[in-house]
Amino acid sequence: MTLSLWLSLVAICMMGAMSPGPSLAVVLKHSIHGSMKNGMLAALSHGVGVGFYAAASLLGLGALMLQFPTVYQVLVYLGAAYLAYLGVKILLAKPSNSELKVAQQSGSAKQALQDGFAIAFLNPKLAVFFLALFSQFIDPANLSFKIGLIMCLTVFTIDTGWYLIVAALTELSKKRFAFTKSSPWFDKILAVIFIGLAIRVVLMV
């Protein structure tokens, strides 16, 4: 793969990672409600999920999903259900005092990892996206392990790197504007965003 071709891949992956959607909402949720650490854990696990689909597409999973649309639709609906679950969970959460809030934040690392990976894994559109994207950059007959590894690492690094930046900027904003307490109104808005994203996913199937 030439440098110019690789830079083209980088540019497309950056635009894809930076586009707003469920992934951004999840990282922001854990960065704001939890900590920069939790936001970064969500970013890391999301990158793993995206990298999984990148590798799977090279192995033919994207084409397989196109041949079996039922499997594709099931994953899409599961992803929408997970987004709705996150929204409802926020709406039903009871207000907590500061000490309890800190305890919840410190113990939500596992949840951050789970949410970040689930949002990526339950989005089969990634497999189709990478199938279409990679077909523009490689010839299947000449695909080598080295080229495939470079492409997958590129996807993982860019996706993870972008959301790590999001988590860090969110933490800086919290400190700069003293936004350290959870606002009931903000929570409701975030919940509505998750539920709205779930509805959008279903309508776009």
Automatic annotation (TrEMBL):
Its main location: membrane. It is a multi-pass membrane protein. It is found in: Cell membrane. The keyword Lyase does not apply. InterPro entries: LeuE-type. The chain crosses the membrane at residues 41-62, 74-92, 112-135, 147-165, 185-203. This is LysE family translocator. It comes from Pseudoalteromonas rhizosphaerae.
